[in-house]
Amino acid sequence: MLRTVEITAELALPLHSERSHNLHWQKKLELNLDCFICGRTGRITRFEHGAELAVCTGDKRSPHPTAARIAGFDVTSRRDRLILRTVVDYWWAPFHDTERDRPATALTRAPWVRISAGYDCLQSHETGSFSIQSNQVRPVNEVCAHCAAPLATDARSPAIRLLT
Known about the structure:
four-stranded antiparallel beta sheet; 0% helix; 57% strand
């Protein structure tokens, strides 16, 4: 069955920023899903926008391609907010994880996502990145690793919603 998940995230931007860091969402994310290919629940799956397949981490020795992709990646930038809405499509079939002795679900038991953001420091002429994830304690204030200028505040957990 084809399943679709919507992920939304938001970063609050400083109102009186002295320098622009060209803060942007990177077109990659990690989402935990139940993988019918390796028969395991709660696997971290890595996505890159434009790739036809995602990669299930399986276990550390055997990552494998899986039928999943980023189907939509929409960014809204306002003076005080950077908002992401991404849609992920993946194939799922019922199975039983024999190692954990539990059935798979269309959206794993405890959905988790990690989303990356990047920036360009105009003062040092270097790039940087950071990630937000749904299981962090909030708020998190992100600063430039090169000049220590405030970049954004992560005040709310990314939302993960099964659409179909």
